[in-house]
Amino acid sequence: MRTVYVNGQYLPETEATVSIFDRGFLMADGVYEVTSVLDGKLIDFDGHAVRLERSLNELDMRAACTKEELLDIHRELVRVNEITEGLIYLQITRGSDGDRDFIFPDPETTKPTIVMFTQNKPGLADSPAAKKGAKIISIEDIRWGRRDIKTVQLLYPSMGKMMAKAAGADDAWLIEDGHVTEGTSNNAYFVKNGKIVTRPLSTDILHGITRKAVLRMAEEAQMEVEERLFTIDEAKEADEAFTTSASAFVMPVVEIDGVVLGDGTPGPIATRLREIYLDESLKAAI
Ligand code: PMP
Fold first, then answer.
1. Which of 42, 161, 187 to mutate to test the pocket of ligand 1 (most atoms within 8 A of CB)?
2. Domain residue spans in the chain?
3. What pLDDT was estimated at residue 104?
């Protein structure tokens, strides 16, 4: 049984509880982060901690603890749950003031709720899915307008994954005003004539921690990167495509809306970036 963390305590997962009045439960009034663990160490902890602070600030929420405390809790959960490869999920909500009200409770009297747990994922780095590449479908992006804040409003992304599953695909890319925003739980890229194209940062997409690292590594490896809006048709005509996220690193895409990219196997740039990312991230893991 897992040991999880809730509001200052380490508990067996069956004993950890949160109030039914918690605003995370009633209103999706909460933010989260997912940090991967490789070799028992945290990948890009700092990036996740910085984005968490930004998400909290954007929603006028208080931090539940300091960055140093967060790091200690992450490490303790990895240790007690004996995680070599896996994920750490962290969620902070605006807490519970013992009732339901749209108005934010006074942060002086209502403390945020913090919950963390591990997910054991042996084989996360050497993933069979990454060797095969993902098939994706495109669907309309009908999420709210502040996708740069990592909130727990994941109903539409979840529905998108179900639409993909029903269509025999692995994931969905979201389209707004004719342009791809991002994947349901990842940032989206295509490669044409050696150039990597991805949407620029704005409030329309999540500022992926993996995106930032991968774009830096691509430039260090002398790869050409262009940040601009792009259509799904451009991606379908691409030589290759891929997504990035903390839980799947660099994931090659081999099919979009039934159109096979290249020879239908992971492309050389996505494959190389996955190798570089895993290699460099492991070296910098803490
Ligand atoms: N976009 C969305 C909508 C996501 O949910 C995620 C993963 N949480 C990402 C992008 C990728 O972000 P990261 O690399 O920080 O995991």
1. 187
2. 3-120, 128-284
3. 97
